[in-house]
Amino acid sequence: MVTVEGEHMPAGPRRLGAAAAAIALLSGCGAAEGLSAAAPDASPAPDAGTCAAVPAAQAPAPTSVPAGMGTTAEDGEFPREVAHFGGTSTIDHRPERIVVVATGQLDGVLSLGTVPVGAAGVPGAGLVPGYVTHAFPDDADALAGIASVGTREDLNIERIADLDPDLVLANEAGAGGGLYGQLAEIAPTVLTEGNGVNWQQDFRLVAAALGETDRAEEVLAGYRAHAARIAGAVADAPPSVSMVRFSAGRTRVWGLASFTGSVANDAGLARPRPQCVEDTSVDVSAEDVDRMDGDWIFYSVQGGGAETDAGTVLDGSLWDGLAAVRAGRAVAVEDDPWFLNAGPAAAELVLTDLERVAEE
Questions:
Q1: Which of 352, 139, 154, 329 is closest to 241 using CA atoms?
Q2: Pair 249, 283: CB distance under 8 Å
Q3: Is Protein biosynthesis a UniProt keyword of this protein (predicted)?
Q4: Of 144, 214, 245, 305, which sits most exposed with the smallest number of CB within 10 A?
Q5: Is residue 216 within 8 Å of residue 14, measured between CB atoms?
Q6: Taking 80 as the threshold, does the pLDDT of residue 200 lie above it?
């Protein structure tokens, strides 16, 4: 799942089966042996070049459904009204034919025990990311049968209608937000906020729509326990973790207000000062390689990397001079869970990758 520089370097905001078991397995088996289950009460003062993790209440990542949203219905009770970022939708029965038009929602719906009939993809990536197939092996055949409804930037409304869905899930922040009226004419449509940093809030809102809030809380409890084990193991001296993504035409470092930034914070890890920004990411040039450094670097290259700066940077002397690279702490990670999808299974995989910082 990960490779380390010098070993196998490549030249990429209510309450939860088989899917729950998959998440539990990821949480349990992914934890490094010997990690403490106790998280630190307070983060140690960071050095001048880093910013420390903060308590969840102070972090930019919301974890609860916003006031006035969600549902008052009990799990399994239908019809139900669900208030969301696009308004209020009535869902007559437990959804069985769901279309997801935001990447992280595929992960979320599977974690709640349902395989959607349709999904939107991301240009340059598979419709069903490899990490999803690995996280939900019992659903492999059904996953292979998911129909494409275009990409998250270019939805095919006719194809969505042809699938005769009983629920559409979309993000306010994506193309689905602008097409909410059209989608709602096809089926009840629930809009989550979108943007990876909101993944826990949005997962809870999806659970409210599906009537699976208890199941969602079980999944999130497993995630929190996994993160706490890492936080406990590094409590005395939390290392800083840098996050870098090479994609077509852009090289970015990931900020605090991002999916992976929120996961690192939950794990009690510090961030390098250039990445201590409340933004999803910051673009950097091939000459700004020093902004990528930290005690550890976790980086991905989208696709084959041909249209990225990865080759120039990773083969360059500036990269080789970074402290993390010299120490053998530059780790290549899977692009889909780290930077394209924001859901419970992806979060578990990111935590598993981050465990190595607690093992030294």
A1: 329
A2: no
A3: no
A4: 144
A5: yes
A6: yes
* pLDDT above 80 for 71: yes
* Sequence-separated (6 or more) residues with CB below 8 Å from residue 245: 251, 252, 254, 281, 299, 300, 302, 335, 338, 339
Q: Percentage of the chain with pLDDT > 70?
A: 87
Phi-psi sector, 61: left (phi>0), alpha (psi -120 to 50), beta: beta
Q: How far apart are the first and last CA of the chain?
A: 19
Contact status, residue 163 vs residue 99, Cβ threshold 8 Å: yes
Token reading at 196: 């990876």
**Any idea how long the chain is?**
360
DSSP 8-state assignment for residue 40: P
Total-model pTM:
0.86
Task: Collect all residues with Cβ–Cβ distance below 8 Å to 259 and sequence separation of at least 6.
Answer: 104, 196, 197, 199, 338, 339, 342, 346, 347, 350
With tokens 């079980």, the residue in question is: 218
Q: Looking up tokens 């999808």, which residue turns up?
A: 341
| 3-state class (DSSP) for residue 58 | helix
**Domains in the chain with CATH codes:** 70-211 (3.40.50.1980), 238-358 (3.40.50.1980)
